[in-house]
């Protein structure tokens, strides 16, 4: 079969078309990124929240103390509020979830007790979900934490470490957010393994890396002199 020969002008135009297509794909991917701002405060928090809002990302993750400061600043940009640690008392977790609701969180992350007995785990799940008052709630847990109660969580949403995405995704049809992602390669891997979102504090570096890849030069076919 004869080689298809295109002109230099056609090659350049096609390369630009492919580049723009890659950039559009990156923009769609960034809508799946939660910018984790839970470790910053003060003016830096405000600056980064606005940068996330205007940078094409999908969500901002804050802690309860940051919520009232960030929410009016970026509204109606969606805010995810992380609440308590895994082994806090259930009453404390419920209070934190209710505070997040009152503070205007669009979505909430709560932690299930690690390796609790079946009855307690079921109780925690139901009461935290009720406390969210209709807000989308994510549960921080690994597959091992859920044990025999996996069927109970078939439609639940989870936040999990990037290494557990496959096993947690097998639980059901809920949304899975992967944490611990720091590079474009890791981002693409966890999304291919079933993660619906990623949450990272390195969102700026991730975006820079993704756009750098999208803008890389490439050779299209065999150029012919006009």
List the helices and strands and how they pair.
Layout: E1 5-7, H1 8-30, E2 33-36, H2 42-54, E3 59-62, H3 64-74, E4 79-82, H4 90-102, E5 107-111, H5 118-131, E6 136-140, H6 143-146, E7 157-161, H7 165-169, E8 176-179, H8 184-192, E9 197-200, H9 203-214, E10 222-224
Parallel strand pairs: 1-10, 2-3, 2-9, 3-4, 4-5, 5-6, 6-7, 7-8, 8-9
Shape: globular
End-to-end C-alpha gap: 23 Å
CATH class category name = Alpha Beta
Largest sheet: 8 strands, parallel, barrel
- Kindly name the structural category: alpha/beta
Number of strand elements = 10
Run of helices and strands = EHEHEHEHEHEHEHEHEHE
Explain how this protein is built:
Residues 221-226 have low confidence and may be disordered. The protein starts with a strand and ends with a strand. It has a single domain (5-224), classed as Alpha-Beta Barrel (TIM Barrel). The chain is globular, with a radius of gyration of 21 Å. It is an alpha/beta fold and 226 residues long. Helix 8 (184-192) links the parallel strand 8 and strand 9 (197-200). The chain has helices at residues 8-30, 42-54, 64-74, 90-102, 118-131, 143-146, 165-169, 184-192, 203-214, and strands at residues 5-7, 33-36, 59-62, 79-82, 107-111, 136-140, 157-161, 176-179, 197-200, 222-224.
């Amino acid at each position: 079969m004869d080689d298809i020969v295109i002109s230099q002008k056609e090659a350049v135009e096609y390369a630009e078309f492919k580049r723009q297509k890659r950039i559009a794909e990156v923009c769609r991917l960034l809508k799946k990124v939660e910018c984790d701002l839970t470790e910053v405060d003060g003016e830096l928090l405000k600056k980064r929240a606005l940068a996330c809002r205007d940078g094409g990302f999908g969500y901002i993750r804050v802690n309860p103390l940051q919520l009232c400061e960030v929410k009016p600043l970026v509204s109606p940009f969606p805010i995810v509020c992380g609440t308590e640690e895994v082994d806090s008392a259930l009453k404390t977790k419920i209070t934190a979830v209710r505070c997040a609701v009152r503070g205007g969180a669009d979505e909430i992350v709560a932690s299930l007790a690690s390796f609790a007995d079946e009855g307690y785990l079921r109780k925690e799940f139901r009461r935290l979900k009720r406390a969210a008052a209709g807000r989308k709630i994510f549960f921080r847990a690994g597959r091992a934490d859920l044990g025999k109660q996996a069927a109970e969580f078939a439609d639940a949403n989870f936040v999990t470490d990037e290494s557990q995405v496959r096993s947690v995704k097998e639980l059901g049809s809920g949304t899975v957010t992967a944490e611990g992602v720091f590079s474009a390669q890791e981002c693409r891997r966890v999304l291919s393994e079933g993660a619906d979102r990623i949450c990272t504090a390195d969102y700026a570096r991730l975006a820079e890396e993704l756009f750098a890849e999208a803008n890389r030069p490439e050779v299209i076919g065999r150029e012919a002199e006009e």
